[in-house]
Amino acid sequence: MSRSSASPLRRVYLHAGMQSFVESSGGIFVAGFLVSRGFSYPAALASFALILLSRFALRGLVLPLARAGGLRTTLLTGVVIRAGSFALLPFVTGIGPLLALFLAVSGLGSVLYWTAWHAFMPAVMDEARGGRQVSVQQATSAVVGIIAPAAGGLLLAHGGANAAFFANAALQLLAALPLLYGPNPRIAPDVALDRDVARHARRLYFNEGFHAGCAVVVWNLALFASLGEHFDALGGAMAVAGVAAAAGSLLVGRLIDTGHPRHSLAVAYGAAALALMVKGAAFAHPVLAIVATALGALVTPMTATAMLAPLYAMARQSPCVLRFSMATEGGWDLGCSAACLITAALLAGGASFRLPILLGLGAIAVMAAMLNRWYVRAAERA
Question: Is the dihedral of CA 65, 71, 76, 82 positive or negative?
Answer without folding.
Answer: positive
